[in-house]
Write a structure and sequence with these properties.
The protein has 163 residues and is an alpha/beta fold. It is 40% helix and 19% strand. It has 6 helices and 5 strands. Helix 2 links the parallel strand 2 and strand 3. The chain is globular. It starts with a strand and ends in a 7-residue tail after the last helix. Bound molecules: adenosine-5'-diphosphate. Adenosine-5'-diphosphate binds next to helix 1 and strand 4.
């Protein structure tokens, strides 16, 4: 069974993330969406909340949601994953992702990093952009699924600036 991991902070999950996750589920037997629970990173949603929002939105049966606070390659090795799948947006993602992919490859050569290109309409979509629009009272309908929209409004509307 070929297992792929889609890692990220998902604070909160967006239509851009979900597109990558579902496309990964079409290619691999099983997908683990791995929510980073890095305590040093200030997130707007707790790890449990971020996981629950993802679970509510994913459609395919072969998608699981998990969390970890260790090294991604250690988790991948433990699960026997063959790939780490990342979404690539504009060129701005490239340098950082390339560096991470090379590091992970040297730490765990059996696991490949696979990049899926973001859809045109998601090219400039990020969690921080969603929170920024939300905090200023804007409409986030085209950025996140309807079923989690209210949760995000409740948390972020009128909140501080996100950058
Ligand atoms: P962000 O970069 O928005 O903080 P994450 O760290 O949660 O998001 O990202 C997890 C993964 O999802 C990364 O591989 C990232 O490139 C990808 N991703 C994020 N936003 C999008 C998008 N709009 N379209 C495609 N992939 C995306």
């Amino acid at each position: 069974m070929k297992i792929a991991i889609c890692p990220g902070s998902f604070d909160p999950v967006t239509l851009g993330h979900l597109d990558i996750i579902e496309r990964t589920a079409d290619i691999f037997d099983e997908v683990i969406v791995l929510v980073a629970s890095n305590r040093s990173k200030n997130t707007s949603f707790t790890t449990e909340e971020r996981m629950e929002l993802i679970k509510r939105c994913v459609k395919s049966d072969n998608i699981k949601v998990d969390t970890d606070d260790g090294l991604l390659v250690d988790y991948a090795r433990k699960k026997g994953a063959v790939a780490i799948v990342k979404g690539l947006r504009a060129m701005s993602d490239f340098d950082y992702e390339f560096q991470q992919a090379l590091t992970n490859k040297s730490l765990y050569p059996e696991c490949e990093t696979v990049f899926l290109t973001a859809r045109g309409e998601n090219m400039f979509l990020s969690s921080s952009m969603v929170k920024e629009v939300c905090s200023l009272g804007g409409d986030i309908s085209s950025f996140v699924p309807e079923k989690i929209k209210e949760d995000i409004y409740k948390r972020c509307k009128g909140d501080k600036n996100y950058d």
